[in-house]
């Protein structure tokens, strides 16, 4: 850490000297001082002299990523583009007040998190800023030790908030995806299917659903081991994903069972074509460390609304058609015949 000392000469000119101290403030394991010093800071002040002075102080205190602007009106757009970890905001600028900048920041930030420390010389605007959502304030003229501590503390909270947010996002992603293949799982598929059917109902469109089960997958496990079976499932997922359109959802819903949701179907051929393509890509041998592995897949196809006017019925129809495809000799697709 670096300590700042203000000195004044006989003519009244002031300067600052920097000296390192041995004081290290303890932080939770999660956010170390290195991460804090790596936080991205924006300094906003209409006075270039203030910007330069504050930048110098931050650099001296170990901060590495500092951006600046003298234009308060540009702050919201800059934050949208760069997602600063901390904004040091001058409250009194001629063009726009700090309060107005915070209002624009809140509107621009989907997280609704204002990473703002206001910089002010006036007691009243300090309270107004805190009430408007600023995390903290720094009074002018600066007390350098206090300034450093407030910036560090606010940055620590900000980075913890980001870490929590990231881990929540990760957990949501894990709850909706298959851990082995990374494909959407049953839960996410049902969610998308529900939305797709709702839209199709409104627009009186058809939807296709392909229920696919690998043929002879148990034998791969038995002959080459479970790890080889797992690697095969990953490759199958990749091939299936690459064989269909971006708008289609490919989900792994069980051991060797996949569902492909086709939201853009005008007639049965629009579902038959991808089904044929999937069967073909599965017939190609899979290169494994254990040698080439040959498998195939069977598919049951159902169309909304002909084969089911809700999720459960549509999936049940496709499942029945899949059963028919298996009974008819596998490595083929069958179209559902009736409304379940
Ligand atoms: N390696 C691996 N195997 C799995 C996984 N989940 C389920 N299985 C196995 O996959 C097999 C699926 O069973 P089936 O569909 O009846 O096997 P199959 O040989 O493909 O049978 P058919 O569909 O009649 O051709 C079972 O042996 C499960 O133990 C997994 O995540 N990894």
Briefly characterize the structure.
By secondary structure, the protein is of the alpha/beta class. The chain is built from eleven helices and 14 strands. It has helices at 33-37, 48-60, 75-82, 98-108, 123-131, 144-176, 186-203, 217-224, 226-243, 269-283, 311-327; strands spanning 2-8, 14-20, 40-44, 65-69, 86-90, 116-120, 136-139, 206-215, 249-254, 257-265, 286-288, 291-293, 296-304, 333-335.
Describe the protein's architecture and organization:
46% of the residues lie in helices and 24% in strands. The chain is α/β, with parallel strands linked by helices. The protein folds into 2 domains: 2-172, Rossmann fold; 186-335, Alpha-Beta Plaits (2-Layer Sandwich). The chain has a 5-stranded parallel beta sheet, with helices on both faces. It has a 5-stranded mixed beta sheet with strand order 9-10-8-13-14, with helices on both faces. The model is unreliable at 1-28 (pLDDT under 50). It binds guanosine-5'-triphosphate (GTP). Residues 180, 213-219, 221, 226, 229-230, 233, 255-256, 326 line the site of guanosine-5'-triphosphate.
